[in-house]
Amino acid sequence: MTRPTLVLLHGWGFSPSVWAPLRAALPEVEIHAPALPGHGELAAGDALGDPVATCEAIRAQLPPTLSRPVWAGWSLGGLIALELARRMPDTRGLMLLNSTPRFAAAPDWTHALPAAELADFQLALDGPRRRLHRRLAMLCARGTPEAASLAADLVSELEGTPATDQGLAAGLACLMERDQRACWQSSPGPVGACLAEGDALVPPAVAQDLRRLRPDARLAVLPGGHAQWWQDPAPVAAFINEFVAALEWSATHDGGG
Description:
257 residues; Rossmann fold; six-stranded parallel sheet; 46% helix; globular
């Protein structure tokens, strides 16, 4: 039996370097952290608009020998993780970290962001990049005990590895339009979601909707905001470790590998 390998997918505007605090808190877990198209140093930002091209771009950054990965996505990365889990038959598990299968509210999906709030990001995207970074960082930091310092750190992170205009536009379109509820409901293998009580981008009440769609899901709602794990990665790391341990236990008792 092999230990599960975790593939971490970052959020909109960020790059794989954002995972540094969480990776340090998971020393026993093998982790890969590819870049989303148009983010960090990866070009072809418009690929985010094509699920097939996005999955190909992600898989191209992973070892060819990698099998049965656990996909884990934060924010926009959760939508991509859901798509990968749907398209990759060897998926071992799936985790959403402060993410949701659908970011935009709908009559049958009320625990989500109003369309007007997402549209405001389009206006910000058309303005100075610095202003967009500050707004995104402040929303990610809201709900955390040290929100001001976290926002400043996240601005530095966003400016350190900027996304392309194409990457941001395609990623925002995913957040506004993509509906992955069917992927969550039918994803092979165990699924889990770790949410935050003060999250300004993913309402924690979506946990009840996730449970309704997938009664067997492992769910947790922790204190803090959208990027609380940047300041205090231990609770999210504990959730991940428990999820991975459950996969190992299941493989042992089912006789799988």
